[in-house]
Specification:
The chain has 217 residues and is α+β, with helices and mostly antiparallel strands. It has six helices and ten strands; from the N terminus they run βββαβββααββββααα. The protein has helices spanning 39-62, 90-93, 102-121, 157-174, 179-192, 196-216; strands at 6-10, 14-21, 24-31, 70-74, 79-83, 87-89, 124-125, 134-137, 143-145, 152-153. The strands form three sheets. Strands 1-2-3-5-4 form a five-stranded antiparallel β-sheet, covered by helices on one side.
């Protein structure tokens, strides 16, 4: 039982709480059991996901990628205690007057592309890149990658291309008329990612498959 905690979000895989921890506000992410799975299997899979998420976050931190700092991991209770990021999501920012300014969008796009390039350089695939999972710190405005619940380690070009495609789809569906901004993200990504030529070429293939699926319904 998490004490003095405020539930701020619930998804398909986990509940996210805001709670005091070691004299500071922290995020506590709790993965909950799935009733349709055998309890022993469920516990094993849940523990694996908790460990994987914490490891990916730690891997990013070591590479100086702005992600929430992990304070503590309680595998038995399926809990991760991590830094509370004070600020707004990129999704919300792009709806503000400032977020509509091309120069401001270009600045944020460069930060996003650079962060994703660095992340893929260390073979971390986020798995759920959306503008809701990109935060902007209140004081500095720097971009923070959050919610690594579906993340994993992979050196496959295809996996990294799909990661970018997921973000592109998020921009297309949520933020009309941001094609230029996404191109700027890819430009910054290309300057930072060591395998950008191969990944961006594969992204074209992934886009083509996506279009074919759309036409087939």
């Amino acid at each position: 039982m998490i004490t003095n905690a405020q539930l701020i979000k619930q998804g398909a895989e986990a509940k996210v709480y805001l709670a005091p921890f070691c004299q500071r506000q922290a995020i506590i992410k709790e993965r909950f059991a799935k009733a349709y799975r055998h309890p022993t299997l469920d516990k094993k899979l849940t523990s694996r996901r908790v460990i994987q998420e914490a490891r990916c976050l730690n891997r990013c931190q070591k590479a100086f990628i702005d992600t929430p700092t992990v304070y503590m991991v309680d595998v038995d209770s399926s809990l991760i205690y991590m830094e509370f990021i004070e600020g707004c999501s990129v999704r919300d920012y792009l709806t503000t007057d400032e977020g509509q300014v091309p120069e401001a969008q270009a600045k944020v796009a460069k930060e996003i592309g650079t962060a994703l390039g660095k992340m893929h350089n260390i073979d971390v695939v986020h798995g759920d890149l959306t503008t809701s999972n990109l935060m902007m710190r209140k004081e500095s405005g720097s971009v923070v990658l959050i919610d690594f619940g579906l993340s994993y380690v992979s050196n496959l070009i295809e996996d990294k291309a799909v990661d970018l495609y997921v973000l592109e789809r998020a921009f297309t569906s949520t933020h009309p008329n941001t094609e230029v901004m996404f191109d700027q993200i890819l430009e910054a990504y290309g300057q930072c990612s060591k395998a950008s030529k191969l990944i961006l070429k594969k992204l074209e293939d992934v886009r083509m498959r996506g279009r074919k699926r759309s036409m087939l319904g």
